[in-house]
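Posted in: Structural Biology > Protein-Ligand Complexes

Title: Requesting predicted complex, succinic acid in pocket

I'd be grateful if someone could produce the 3D structure tokens for the following input. Sequence and ligand are given below.
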Amino acid sequence: MGPTMTKHYIGGAFVDGDAAAIVVRNPATDAVLAEIPGASAALAARAAEANAQAARGMRAFPLLKRVELVRRLGAAIRADVARLSVALMQESGKPIAEARTEVEYSASFFDNAAAAAEMASGELPASRVADRRVLVLREPIGATVAITPWNFPLAMIARKLAPALAAGCSQMVKPAEETPLTALLFAEIFDRVARDCGAPAGAFGVIVGDPPTVARELLAHPATRKLTFTGSTEVGRILAAQCAPRLIKTALELGGNAPFVVFADADLDRAADQAMLTKFRFMGQTCISANRFLLQKSIAQDFVERLESRMRALVVGDPASESTRIGPLVNDAALAKVEEHVRNAVAGGARVRVGGSRVAVAGLSSRFFAPTILENCAPTMQCACEETFGPVVAAMTFETEQEAIALANAVPFGLAGYVMTQDADRLLRVAEALEFGVIGANDGAPSTAEAPFGGRKDSGLGREGGHHGLDAYVDLKYVSLRVRA
Ligand code: SIN
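-- Reply #1 --
Done. Output follows.
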């Protein structure tokens, strides 16, 4: 690891930590990748103050300079794809080919935010009163805080930071303890680009440490105006409560429990291909991974056979290898949850059609879980009520469209849902009836930088991506102007 990768990035400088070390391990090998001295409450308070100062600088940093900064960050990420993808693969266990895809996905958020900022404009609504004009101005909301997850160590920073900078805000990021190294490597890249562009020092920062301590200090600073968080619903609720006293604006991208509905009139090969995309991207460890497979009874066996043959071709192994599609789960707790869901389903009458247990990979850790199909699942099982976050297909059947919609919506979550059919009327009808923020209609990979990503119900608040993502960092102000005739 480079010398700066064990330091925090605060106020445009790399600084040493002063609290208990965060140990970063490779989930595939168990090797210690780094020990990062964490941030104390005092250091976190210093980071919050640096973020507040940088917000003042960013407010005065002209639009075209911001757009240049954001565009160049996207280009710099692409130019550094080799180093970024290796760091990301090593600390998260994401297979290297997929890690490179994440790097490109990350860069696309910078392209999108730059374009959105360039096109953004205020308003001059038609006046109801002859001698009055109303000017609607867009202003940056100020200092922002981002708390990001381990499953997308770079892309979730990009999704939050790019629009923040483009809108003229600063952002202090606390990455997950499992994956701080990609964030710190990106900080090196940011530092170089920001200096070249003459950006205010500290427009972006990274602080690593005990989550409650760091979050408390960052949110306590009077200048902090927004929190954007991606993670569990449980933690999202705690953070929202901390934001409530000062009415800090929140964007919460929380857990999901995505249904994948296959109708008898679907193109089953196409549906199986799309299922592979949503289910096995990062071994099912994404918030939009399909969790419950709802299959119309007449085609259930046929669909499962097609899925099984595709799953048997997945290479389980070292995430550093180009051919690997299934690497280790991120940690022991993730593995234990997947095992518990399989046990619970089998105890309730489900049948393991393929997989169902760990896979031994020579010389590597024991966190590899076989791609699994559970048939005959029921809506009351853990694998249907909770987010499994692993490579498990929980299949159950339905008879009618109404039944499918009711089953799909019968969870407190509302992030992503999928519908597979060739009937255009049904496609739109079901897409409209699903209570989720993202619908994959014959599409197993709906995430893209230009779309307003986000959930409903227990899956959270706010949208990220597209011009909506930029708007989330903008405060509107109107000036009511009397004009003498
Ligand atoms: C997530 O899992 O939180 C994000 C998924 C995505 O951007 O596709």
